[in-house]
Write a structure and sequence with these properties.
By secondary structure, the chain is mostly beta strands. The protein has two helices and ten strands; from the N terminus they run βββαββαβββββ.
């Protein structure tokens, strides 16, 4: 097993907080996300490693996971501005008129994608927690794009 650890430091609640993620390639093998500022606040977190975008879902939002997975063909990540902030739209493409989408502010991501990443096929996975351990609920192909404004809610233009 080739493990790699990522540590993100944040200044939350006027103190230094850290989020640690131990990776085995694109998989998360261990994390303190649920105990971190992000997890405690119920914030979704996007982590990137080994060609995969991983959406971490805190226990208090676990009920949303079945809606994300239903009919999922691939995931489109769109980087753009929303309400005066730079955000990422995580859209689960299911070929319906109402795909599932969530919005994550860029400070709640450990890496942003840039123009050099557009046009490549990535992997996207959704992670929750079972018995306190990371659990991958599903994985699909992913594509990223940079747009002017969000919500974008459109299929990827390839």
């Amino acid at each position: 097993m080739n493990t790699q650890k990522t540590t993100i430091f944040t200044n939350s609640e006027n103190r230094l907080d850290s989020l640690c993620i131990a990776n085995n390639g694109p998989d998360i093998i261990e994390t303190n996300y649920c105990q971190s500022f992000y997890g405690r606040q119920g914030l979704l977190f996007i982590s990137v490693n080994a060609g995969a975008f991983r959406l971490l879902v805190p226990p208090q939002r676990k009920s949303a996971i079945p809606n994300m997975r239903r009919g999922a063909k691939h995931v489109v990540l769109s980087l753009g501005e929303m309400l005066g902030r730079q955000m990422i739209e995580w859209l689960v493409e299911d070929n319906s008129d109402t795909p599932y989408a969530v919005y994550v502010e860029t400070p709640v991501c450990d890496r942003l994608f840039g123009p050099e990443d557009v046009g490549k096929e990535w992997r996207a996975s959704v992670w929750g927690f079972e018995n306190g351990k990371p659990h991958k609920y599903f994985e699909r192909p992913a594509y990223c794009q940079i747009v002017l404004t969000l919500p974008w809610l459109q299929k990827i233009s390839q």
